[in-house]
Amino acid sequence: MGITELAVLKWVHILSLVYWLGGEWGIFQTSYNIVNRKLSMDERRRHMETAYRIDILSRTGILLLFPLGFHMGHFWGVQPFGGWVITACWVLFIGWLGLCWSAFIFRETDRGIKLTLIDERIRYVFIPLIVICAISSLFGEGPFLAGTAQKWFSAKILIFAFLLVIGLYLRFIMREWTMMFRILAQKHDELVEQKLERSINMSRYVAYLYWIGICSVAFIGATKPF
Fold first, then answer.
1. Can you list the pairs that 119-124 forms with residues at least 24 positions away whose Cβ atoms lie under 8 Å?
2. How many Cβ atoms from other residues are within 10 Å of residue 165's Cβ?
């Protein structure tokens, strides 16, 4: 039978999901040391650096999942767009991924913060767009097919959009961490320490919801229940 295009797409899709879910767990565990006041500031900054290095792989997985799913959806007959539309989708997302990596490379600079803001603004457009497409398709009025055993695709995209909203919130938090660590690197500031601890504690609760959503997306994609 040989190696097919669809099989390769499935393989990369699985890897992307693993890096997404595993990366979020790694950041979750690292956050405990980021707020540990018993550690020196240099040690805490090293854990912060580790969190960023883990996070970039998770972000890469997230951004790859949509074009991969969109591409496979054409093979499965749940979305009618092929040819140049799929090519355009890949070009756009590879460009977006390049922006994401550039923001990571320059993360400790004002330039990195500006690139991160651009990345976030793209999400302000992309998230509502796919929410509208997914909901309208579930009611048979959107761009994706909604016949028997086809609605799972739109449902999966809708949950994925919700997860991007959570991810956007977590990005706000990590950018806030960078700004607070700049202050703490200069001097001890109790108010900043408390704000950092509250920020990380809140993000941990959000992370539980995030993991449930990721597992739900994986389940729908694997079982295609409706």
1. 119/171, 120/168, 120/171, 120/172, 122/96, 123/164, 123/168
2. 13
Highest mean pLDDT among 40-54, 82-96, 166-180, 181-195: 82-96
Given 3-state DSSP classes, what are the helix, strand and coil percentages for the chain, each rounded to the nearest 5?
85, 0, 15
Residue type for position 156? K
Nearest CA among 224, 220, 218 for reference residue 61: 218
Number of domains, the chain: 1
Task: Please give the Cα distance from 52 to 54 (Å, whole number).
Answer: 5
Q: Is the dihedral of CA 204, 64, 128, 125 positive or negative?
A: positive
Q: Of 12, 18, 21, 123, which Cα lies nearest the Cα of 68?
A: 12
List b or e across 137-153, with b for residues whose CB sees 16 or more CB atoms inside 10 angstroms: bbeeebebbbeeebbbb
Q: What are phi and psi of 40, to 5 degrees?
A: -70, 160
| Whether 126 contacts 184, CB under 8 Å | no
Are residues 78 and 207 in contact, defined by beta-carbon separation less than 8 angstroms?
no
Angle among Cα 119, 24, 120 to the nearest 5 degrees reads 10
The string of pLDDT tens digits covering residues 3-48 is 899 999 999 999 999 998 888 888 888 888 887 888 888 888 888 8
Q: Which domain holds residue 164?
A: 5-223
